[in-house]
Amino acid sequence: MSKKSKLKIIPLGGLNEIGKNITVFEYGNDIVILDCGLAFPEDEMLGIDLVIPDVSYLLKNKEKVRAIVLTHGHEDHIGALPYILRDLNVPVYGTKLTLGLVEYKLKEHGLLSNVKLVTIKPGDEITLGAFKIEFIRSTHSIADAVAIALHTPVGIIVHTGDFKVDYTPIEGEMIDLARFGQLGKMGVLALMADSTNVERPGYTMSERTVGETFEEIFKYCDQRILVATFASNVHRVQQVINAAVRYGRKVAVSGRSMQNVVNVAIELGYMTVPEGVLIDIDEINRYRNNQIVIVTTGSQGEPMSALSRMAFSDHKKVEIVPGDLVIISASPIPGNEKLVSKVINELFKKGADVIYESLADVHVSGHACQEELKLIHSLIKPRFFIPVHGEYRHLKQHANLAERLGMKSQNIFIMDIGKVLELTEDSARIAGSVTAGKVLVDGLGVGDVGNIVLRDRKHLAQDGLIVVVVTISGENGLVIAGPDIISRGFVYVRESEDLMEQVRGVAKTVLGKCEEKKITDWSTIKSNLKSSLNEYLYEKTKRKPMILPVIMEI
Q1: d(CA 219, CA 367)
Q2: Mind listing the pLDDT tens digit for each residue in 283-302?
């Protein structure tokens, strides 16, 4: 069988992790990329702003890449585009709202003029090299989401993207289950499906249930209302606006990402706001408290977000006052629970009432629960199945669910990023791997902070730093001045003068020994200083600060 007749599926992100979704489909000389997202840093990634996928495999095969195709406009699916399009300038296909949000990003990074953005609608088909790509209407917690069917020379691959089955969506039509059924009849070689909510039984509630809860809360509230939610959840914001209009309130928007999304959504017609309802955040003091709703970012307790700043009295425009009603309309992303509860505690301390998910139906997920996943599996009846979008436990549970529906375990592939799945018309196997992983973004630096830098940051954060400064004569190698000891984050120097003096004594002894032995090589002097001080400090304090010897020559 010729080498060409195999389709390769290579996930470069989104497996064994939440976020940075990106999958590569390769056939012969053609590559199509599905989504290009970012992830948020883990706790131990000190100072890191964002995590993006490692795309060195794509850069190596630049000339094969035909396009990037997007399923929807969430950060974990579009967030890495500004960083990756710099080195890999290919056309980007997506729906109107998705590209509206991408445009904002590219504008901020000064890339908009050189990237080709192509708008598609659900139902459209495009041909990219050996692939015919079909966009299928889907429903998710952001408008304009699509699933993808790739018609390839070896068969049809269906990728659900992030989805839920919402029979009563806020705007637009429901997910196109009929098309999934038709594809199932034609025969689907492989299904890749969203595993985020696979641990939850039953169905995900419709977005409309949140609207009903809002109506109920607004009806009986006589105070100012603040609603925190994900900026991208256009339908949620729309429902807040609907409830505000119904009960005669004005709406102000706080938080940069929230303002961006609301502007794009109104501009593109995904949100309808009656004239005069939206007011600027500067105008809120002109109205009584019971005439105002503030929609804000910060539902995840992010320290710099608008809601956190309000909670900690750090916001320039909004001060939380006793009686304010704060609705947190989102559930904490795994890992953010502590941050969220900190903000909730702070809001209560300020005298606000807080309603969060465990108290009322103020949030529904955008991802399918078990019954919806079963529905998709039963409609599509794939030959092979690859669970995607989730940590290992989610992927494993989704594989178990597929087995309960009658799939053979050898036809289910729990993949890892960088692994290559090779498919022919009747077989699938994991064949090797490519470079994959995390690239860390810190400020303007992309990828210049790696494991070694993070290890140093951790070391500094845990035990601090001691600098030993010595001046040596260029002529005879004798110590002219010093050693001086400077310490940061190790001990409070004013109360530990004795210890500092002893450290200086140890350094002096080491330098004296080096002089006796006629050692003039700087690196040897430095390593002797380091090891002696390390031992001494560990013995005295059981701490291991970072030790930096600095030698100057005169």
Answers
A1: 29
A2: 999 999 999 999 999 888 88
For residue 520, the SS3 value is coil
DSSP E strand boundaries for 70-152: 92-94, 117-119, 125-128, 131-137, 146-152
Write the CB contacts of 354 (distance below 8 Å, at least 6 apart in sequence). Answer: 325, 326, 327, 328, 344, 347, 348
Q: Which phi and psi (to 5°) does residue 217 adopt?
A: -70, -45
Written as one letter, the residue type at 308 is S
Instruction: Give the pLDDT of residue 385.
Output: 97
pLDDT at 2 over 50: no
Q: CA–CA separation, 48 vs 46, rounded Å?
A: 6
Q: And the tokens for 384?
A: 């092979």
Rounded-to-integer distance, Cα 363 and Cα 356, Å: 8
- Three-state DSSP at 123 gives coil
Torsion over CA: 40, 41, 43, 48 (sign): negative
Beta-strand relationship, 30-34 and 22-27 = antiparallel
Is residue 237 within 8 A of residue 330, CB to CB? The reply is no
Q: Do residues 141 and 207 lie in contact, with contact meaning Cβ atoms separated by under 8 Å?
A: yes
- Beta-carbon contacts of 373 under 8 Å, excluding residues fewer than 6 positions away, are 193, 194, 198, 398, 401
Residue pair 411/26 in contact (Cβ under 8 Å)? The answer is no
Give CA–CA dist 204/394, Å, rounded.
16
Tokens of 224: 């100012």
Q: Which of 315, 367, 394, 398 is catalytic?
A: 367
Q: CA-CA distance, 465 to 487, in Å (whole number)? A: 6
Q: CA 525, CA 527: separation in Å to the nearest integer?
A: 6
Residue type, 320: I
Helices (H), 170-313: 177-186, 207-220, 234-246, 256-267, 306-311
DSSP 281: G
Sequence-distant (6+) residues with CB within 8 A of 190 are 9, 155, 157, 158, 382, 383, 384, 385, 386, 423, 428
Residue position matching structure tokens 């020379």 = 153
Residue 105 in tokens? 């990003």
Q: Is 194 in the active site? A: yes
In this structure, what are the phi and psi dihedrals at residue 495, rounded to the nearest 5 degrees?
-95, 0
Highest mean pLDDT among 116-125, 303-312, 509-518, 545-554: 116-125
The token pair that represents 429 in the structure block: 């196997």
Mean pLDDT of 457-482: 78
Check: CB of residue 33 under 8 Å from CB of residue 22: yes
Residue reference for tokens 């003068």: 497
Tell me which of 54, 76, 166, 194 is the catalytic residue: 194
384-438 pLDDT tens trace: 999 999 999 999 999 999 999 999 999 999 999 999 999 999 899 999 999 888 8
Instruction: Report the run of H or E that residue 404 belongs to, with start and end.
Output: helix 392-404
pLDDT computed for residue 354 by the predictor: 93
For position 1, what pLDDT does the model report? 40
Spatial distance between the Cα atoms of 125 and 127, rounded to a whole number of angstroms: 7
Asked if 109 is an active-site residue, the reply is no
Q: How far apart are the first and last CA of the chain?
A: 73
Q: Decide: 298 and 343 in contact? Cβ < 8 Å.
A: yes
C-beta of residue 374 within 8 angstroms of C-beta of residue 404 = no
Rg (CA), the chain: 29
